[in-house]
Structure formats: structure tokens, C-alpha cells
Design goal:
The protein is mainly alpha-helical. Helices cover about 80% and strands about 0% of the residues. The radius of gyration is 17 Å and the shape is elongated.
Length: about 130
Amino acid sequence: MINMSENISENENNIKRIIKGSIFSIVITLIGLLVYSIILSYTSVSESTMPATIIIITAVSILIGSTISTSNIKKNGIVNGVLVGIIYIAIIYLISSIVTGNFLLNTNSIIMVIASTLTGALGGIIGVNKR
């Protein structure tokens, strides 16, 4: 029989892992966007590469964050990974909405939410199964 305090402790550790993975994802995104902005400023790379690059940076960031978040657990990797993806995209959406003053959801926003969720799930699977 599982002790109630063990279950609460496990849930607290799980929440900490999810938050850590989300923060790690955002930091990776910021670093990736900084590098990309430097490349745009000092090379002849076209700004037309921006949408694809942002999607790639986002996906890689969530994949790494959700993998790190789930690397020390044995179960619920998909759930944890999805939560990392959802928290990440919610924070990014809020920040970008505040900056632009536009809180509308459009097709691109919905695609990013779906992609973030799926990428988080994939990272969760990778993290749990990593040995």
C-alpha cells in the first residue's frame, strides 16, 4: 500500500520537474532566438526564414525541456512532457500577447499549441525511456 505522504512527495517532485523543464525550454528558446537575431543582423540570411526558424527553435526547446523533465521518472512521461509543452506555449503566448497587445488566437497560434503539445509528449517518451 502506498503511503499518502509518499504520494504527495512524488507529486511535488513531479511538479518541480515540469516547472524545471518548462523554464529550461524557455531559456533554450531565448538563447536560440538571440543567436538567430545575431545571424540575421550580421549575415545575408533573409528574414523570410523567420517563421520556420522560430518553429524549429520552439520544437527543439520543448523537446529538450520535456526530455530533461522526464529523464528521472519511470512512468507518465507523456503526461509530464505534454504539461511542459503546454506551460511553455502558454508562457510564450502571454509574453508575445503582452508585447504585441494582441491576445487573439489565430491559425498559427493553434498550430503552435498542437505542435508544442506533441513535441512535449515526444520528449516525455524519450526522457522516460532514456537509459
